[in-house]
Design goal:
The complex is a heterodimer of chains A (about 450) and B (about 90).
Chain A: H1 6-14, H2 20-34, E1 38-40, H3 42-57, E2 68-72, H4 99-107, E3 110-115, H5 130-136, E4 142-148, H6 153-159, E5 162-165, E6 184-190, H7 193-203, E7 232-236, H8 237-240, H9 245-260, E8 264-268, H10 276-291, H11 310-321, H12 324-337, H13 342-366, E9 369-373, H14 389-393, H15 395-402, E10 407-414, E11 420-426, H16 432-454
Parallel strand pairs in A: 2-3, 2-4, 7-8, 7-9
Antiparallel strand pairs in A: 1-3, 4-6, 5-6, 5-10, 9-11, 10-11
Helix pairs in contact in A: 2-3, 7-16, 10-12, 10-13, 10-15
Chain B: H1 2-14, H2 21-36, H3 72-76, E1 82-83, E2 86-87
Antiparallel strand pairs in B: 1-2
Helix pairs in contact in B: 1-2
The chains are: A alpha/beta (about 450), B mainly alpha (about 90).
Chain lengths: ~450, ~90
């Protein structure tokens, strides 16, 4: 069952070939036996499975009823341990569900448990993104995570799964424990774009509790009949020079597939992309220094025993509770926002963001979609800085997330070691449906071509 | 080095974090390298570009309609120290 798509499992459940409890237990047992880093919610999952089966038996099932899903540990789940990868949230059990969780529960989806994340999403992504890895390892049929500036894209690419970061505002962020609100988007990872579409359809839409959420047409299910004939794909030239030989070959093959599907291909330039990582690092650090101010240990989470006064106690709590990278980012955030540095760094980063937005807009005047590698090897002023090495590879996703555009990543080839190589596709704001359709058309053509080669 | 240590101490105060001496030394040593991550941005030509307030334009705010609050007992359940219906903090006023 681990290799099945959501669509295949839906059919088996609806035809009564399997029951939700049996399905849920098989996934829970697999996670248990592999001893993976997932905080399982066994009791809750089995109770949800029984309710989901009742929905199916009464003919009231929805697309995700009975489908096993994992949730990244930076999304609030009522009564289930949620630590956001931080000692600061020691033993914290949210008293409410995030909107995405409410929507999944209303669909009858089964939440198997919580997967690991880098601390408050600010890590270097050296440790694999648990949500993405869980789908790749067949521990769930789908994973929902909150992605800050494209930081999970590296994992998705390396694991051969398909991910979509929806347009900023398409999915409510209420209940997401974020550190950089302007860069945080909900990410859906599944086996392919069609499965991603089913999930996105269920979780998107306006939410009065998130002022940045926007009501858009949320039917992402009709993507099968999409034709790429006559569409224009823009190849972002700046990234092409930053690729390994395997990466160049795979991307060239992907471009060839788009041509075979009837697309026109043209070169486009994003000259500000080389500043995207610096802008992301500045803005996310600045926002973190404000957003993470609420963690004081008084109302929830870890609390230090040191400090006799209110202020001293909070300082010790935060000093002991936050990890090394988060503290580094908080210090940097305060620095770039302080007098004398604000214009040089923070304001400049915001200007770069605006310029990048204008460059994307200009590109979409001539192109329907943009294609780039998922990972590059961008030169940076200080590659010896361990804390950023892996993040710099994700610049295509970071640049896109900076301006709130949707992007997908899927497999377009394999390196000499047989590891997947990812391709990223991007389109304009709120054209998520077309983006998923384009990604799905590519996946089907890539899969067919691979079978031809294997024969 | 002393100026870097002074800077780190100042930033510690701004973000309300108590670092131990070892951590403070480490961040002071790393500081130039940390700035190296972001200094590239100073070379960007942003010309006549102006900052827009948000990535996506916001629609109207929701109606201000009172709704029930979360149960007090549940809200207190995550605090490490409580007393009756309250969070307990160290003394705020001397």
């Amino acid at each position: 069952m681990k290799d099945y798509s959501i669509r295949q499992v839906r059919q088996l459940l609806d035809k009564g070939k399997i029951c939700t409890l049996e399905l849920t237990r098989s996934f829970l047992e697999r996670a248990d036996s592999l001893n993976v880093n997932i905080t399982l919610a066994k009791t809750e999952a089995e109770q949800d499975a029984i309710q989901a089966q009742a929905m199916i038996d009464s003919g009231n099932q929805k697309p995700l009823t009975g489908i096993p899903i994992v949730i990244a540990d930076n999304i609030s789940t009522k009564g289930i341990l949620t630590t956001c990868g931080s000692k600061m949230l020691y033993n914290y059990k949210p008293v409410f569900d995030a909107t995405v969780i409410e929507k999944l529960k209303a669909e009858g989806a089964i939440i198997l448990g919580k997967t690991n994340v880098t601390e408050f999403g600010l890590g270097n992504d050296i440790s694999p993104n648990g949500a993405v890895t869980a789908v790749s390892a067949g521990l769930a049929l789908c994973a929902i995570s909150a992605n800050i500036g494209g930081s999970s894209i590296h994992s998705a690419s390396a694991n051969g799964t398909t991910s979509i970061n929806a347009t900023y505002g398409a999915v409510s962020r209420y209940g997401v424990i974020g550190s950089a609100p302007s860069l945080t988007q909900i990410n859906v990872t599944a086996k392919d774009a069609q499965d991603c579409a089913i999930v996105l359809s269920a979780i998107s839409g306006k939410d009065s509790r998130d002022m940045t959420s926007v009501g858009i047409k949320s039917d992402f299910n009709n993507i099968q009949d999409f034709s790429l004939q006559g569409k224009t794909i823009g190849v972002i030239t700046e990234y092409m020079e930053q690729l390994s030989l395997d990466g160049k070959t795979s991307l060239a093959n992907a471009i060839a597939i788009f041509k075979e599907l009837g697309c026109n291909v043209k070169q486009v330039s994003l000259s500000s992309a080389k500043y995207a990582f610096s802008a992301y690092y500045i803005i996310s650090s600045a926002e973190a220094s404000s957003s993470l101010a609420l963690y004081d240990g008084i109302r929830f989470g870890y609390r230090s025993k040191k400090g006799d006064t209110f202020e001293e106690n909070i300082k010790h709590t935060r000093g002991e509770g936050f990890g090394e990278e988060v503290k580094r980012r908080l210090l940097l955030g305060a620095f770039v926002l302080s007098s004398g540095n604000y214009d040089k760094y923070y304001h400049k980063a915001k200007l770069v963001k605006e310029k990048l937005k204008a460059e994307f807009k200009s590109a979409f005047n001539d192109c329907d979609f943009l294609i780039s590698p998922t990972e590059i090897d961008l030169e940076h002023s200080d590659r010896s800085q361990e804390s950023i090495q892996n993040l710099t590879k994700s610049v295509p996703a970071i640049a896109t997330s900076l301006v709130g555009l949707p992007w997908t990543t899927t497999t377009c080839g394999y390196n000499k070691q047989g590891m997947p190589i990812g391709v990223q596709l991007t389109t304009s704001h709120f054209a998520d449906n077309a983006l998923l359709a384009c990604t799905s058309a590519f996946e089907q053509a890539f899969s067919a071509k691979r079978k031809e080669v294997q024969v | 080095m002393n100026d870097k240590l002074d800077l780190i101490k100042h930033l510690e105060d701004l973000v309300a974090i108590a670092l131990d001496e070892q951590e403070r030394q480490k961040y002071a040593i790393q500081w130039e390298s940390i700035l190296g991550c972001i200094d590239l941005i100073t070379k960007a030509d942003t010309g006549a570009i102006q900052v827009q307030p948000q990535t996506v334009e916001f629609k109207a705010l929701r109606e201000d309609i009172p709704e029930p609050s979360l149960p007090r007992a549940e809200l207190l359940s995550n605090a490490s120290i409580t007393q009756e219906d309250s969070f307990v903090t160290p003394k705020v006023v001397g």
